[in-house]
What does this fold into?
Amino acid sequence: MLNVDFNKLAELINRNVPGANAVVNEAADTKCDSSITVDAAKIYSVVEFLKTNKEMPFNSLQVISGVDYVEWMEVCYMLAHFDLETPREFILKVKVTDRVAPAVDSIVKLYAAANFQERECYDMFGIKFNNHPDHRRILCPDDWEGFPLRKDYIAQKVYNGMEVYPDGKMNFEDREFVVRQDMIKKAQTQAAN
Amino acid sequence: MSTIHQTGSVKDYFCDLISGITTTAKGMWITFKYVWAVKPVSIEYPEVREVLPERARMRLFNDVQNCISCTQCAMACPVDCIYIASEKRPEGEEIKKTSNGQPIRLKLTQFTIDTALCCYCGLCTTVCPTECLTHSHDYEFSQYTIDSMKYDYLAPDVIAWRDRIVKA
Amino acid sequence: MQSKWDIGEPEKPTINTETEQLKSDLLTLNMGPQHPATHGVLRLEIWTDSEIVAHAIPHLGYLHRCMEKHAENLDYRGIIPFVDRLDYLAAMNMEWTYVAAVEKMLGTEVPRRAELLRILVAELQRIASHLMAFGTYALDLGAFTPFLYAFDEREKILRLFEEVSGARLLYNYVWVGGVWNDWTDEQLVRVAQFCDVMEEEAKKYNELVSKNKIFVERTANVGVFTVEDCLSYGATGPVLRGSGMKWDLRKNKPYSLYSEFDFDVPVGEGEEGRPGDCWNRYMVRMKEVIQSIKIVRQVLEKLEPGPIMGKVPKIIKLPKGEVYVRHECPRGELGIHLVSEGEKQPFRLKVKSPCFTHVSMLPHVAPGQMIADLVATVGSIDIVLGEVDR
It folds into this structure.
């Protein structure tokens, strides 16, 4: 990541936002990116601090990306500073352990970009964003069940009277398909032995 | 937001008028030049056909006589549209060789490609060890049913196709 | 006697329910999903007061193909054809961004010739994409001829790409570790010829469209985004530059070999209208075409024979970790957030699409505009719905 001293930034956050518990996730591999995890309850004040501080401001939110690690879920905020002299960017993370009703505070008031991004995150992972002005699904239909990008997602059987993945659908009925799957498995086991 | 409510002087009005006429006339002149200065670029398609470049990726063709049923193409395919089945050769049957000298140990019993699913990415042709799976240059193969987009390369009617594509 | 014209008192319509009464409320209009001015399948729910737009609500998802979910079940090479289909008008840039993310985690060294060829195809693709934007934008505003001129030039680029990669739109050309095929000298000569022709053509387009009074009246001072708006909404690319901020990743955070190249970053200067309006956004694209030609010429000078493929393991397995890579694509900054758990497949692939961000700006700018101006605004941010919905 660019122009960001993670330890210094984590210390800054901890000093200015009490209870944020900023922890630096050093990348195990040098080729990968490091990130900072903060407490989910404090995300609004942390982002507010990051946006308004003088020392290391971030004036733009690039994207909100959810990651489902099965035991917990993460919401990654890619913050960037668009500045001609010292451009910066880094990943801010929030851990959510509740899978039934996960909720994080919305940051739409700080960055207008968060509006659609949070809606997408809700659509794909079912993470609710408190105080969001327009909390709806965005890519899937409004009455779709389940959250597709979760690892345990199973597509619903019937949607609005239409069968999802019907048995009679041409390319699934193929016997060849099954034969092929077996062949691949066989070839893989042969290659392994 | 919009400029329609602006009120200007009479001079502005005529300046706008003149610039509107001159710029439009300039554009008209550019398009008018195309009448004689530029040759048409379109091709009268069914009569005149463009010669495709050598690497053009069109309908897939598998030369089954060279296929060693290694299933590498099926594994590389990102949309899973290649179906391969093979069995062990019966004892005593002669083991043929491919054109580049690899022995064909397994007997290919099925090689089907669902062309309706194929995304023409070319990944299957790059992994093929005997270069029997290639992209041909046929691009007109619309069908009435989606079932007939499935090509069985072991079917006898492929042989005529093969003669055209595989140059000895 | 009653004549046939005299039909007596007209029958009064009976109004039974409240809903049937004539209302002076806002009228709801659906623009799209099959509207040609929405560049795909964007549906804009517009609430209008006579012809003035009161609200515009984008409804997305008509082209949602679950690309991110698909990617979790594919190997790293098999994702490249899927990434192509995000922004199908700039597939080379999409591939390169994704491949750059994989290469960063893999630590692959890409040969110099391959990097230069990537810059070559990316810039040619940028020209092709901007030509498409130019043509369809003129079409949106009622001029049909520029569309044909732009397609004529774009066709030359597509033909070159077809010869070198085998496909016209969805190339699968940029591979992990390098590029698929090498360019021949003859093709490079044709690229140089194309650059000369394109420079003349760009001048012609400017004369034909950019300075045309009708075009200027339709676009200048329409749909204004300030720099603050753009930063708050996270807008990038020509939208941000059209507002007057001189931000280009190729210049400000040079990736690949861009630091070796000499080019300018065009911004909206407000020759007509003011920075941030449709005309300036459009003009930034036209100026970028000239800059891309400049880069392509420098690439042709620097190209030397050499390998085009680096050393890549046969089965790609990435280390455990994550990267966020962003590249400057024709429509803005494309970001790839790639999370790996050490498997053959990615654990999570998130695409930050610039068009998705730009669509979210429409509700901000639409209120107060005429409907025809909204068409001009939607055209000027140049969205591709394949990338919005993924």
